[in-house]
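>> received
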Amino acid sequence: MKEIEEVRIEFEEKIKKLKPEDLKKLETYFLGRKGKVAYLFELLRNIPAKEKRETGQQINELKEYIENRILQYKQLFEEEEQQEKLLKESIDITVPGLKSEFGYLHILSMVIKEIEEIFLSMGFDIMTGPEIESDYYNFEALNIPEFHPARDLQDTFYLSQKLLLRTQTSPIQVRTMEVQKPPIRIIAIGKCYRRDASDSSHSPIFHQIEGLVVDKNVSFANLKGTLLEFTRQMFGKDTKVRFSPSYFPFVEPGAETAISCVICKGKGCRVCKQSGWLEMGGSGMVHPNVLKNVDIDPEKFQGFAFGWGIERIAMIKYSIPDIRMFLQNDLRFLEQFK
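>> returned
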């Protein structure tokens, strides 16, 4: 009985000083296989038989007492740990909030989206094509055979003798006409590549929009009306379109298109070099040879096509002075167009 009481007293002393990290050690010390309680059960063999029952009951009561007390402390420590976590995770509403950064479309993506919406409203479909093209689709099918001087106007990135990075989105027109017969009304938008020296108005990588309409009784007047409507929606209802005779192998007749300067309203300024007009790109009636290359009878069907640079459209619309700014990833520039 004396040893039982000594174990009880020792347990009470130790549990008063107990720390959470020592709980397991305390449990092993008293209730383990070689612990204090197990030692008491070993002593039970040496006492008279008439005292064994009562003594054994006392040891069992001590064991149960120690187990319950350890369980209480275990629950207490768990609650304290939970409360500490809750305090650490609580929100202090007096602390200033953190500014969240949100992504947004690049200025070119915004302009492309606007162009698509305008032409979709006019009944055009949007087509895409590969950026790595064959010499046939990029040149020959567009009435630019090998050794044609027009190839010199487009300094090309060749990947092999017959593969290249497309210099224009016009190959998409040929691919479309091969699988789709008239009536055709599409726009093609995508990246183009030319070996141009980079300066304020030229880039070896640029985006282009090409338009194509093929049907019966299509005339140059339809081309003028289409570009005028697009120009007014993109730059303002007072914008005018001008056509000047020009040469492009895949159209006949061909025309260079220009719009009235959106900065000075045609009066003349530094941007338009005092002319009142801004050049936009080429256009014209689809050359009969191009139609023949895709098995469309030029005696029954006519078409018009045009190609404008998207960077050019964006620079004019938002008064951007340098084409290189689109590729520099300068947030000071890009954040202006959120």
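>> The chain has two domains: 2-89, 107-337.
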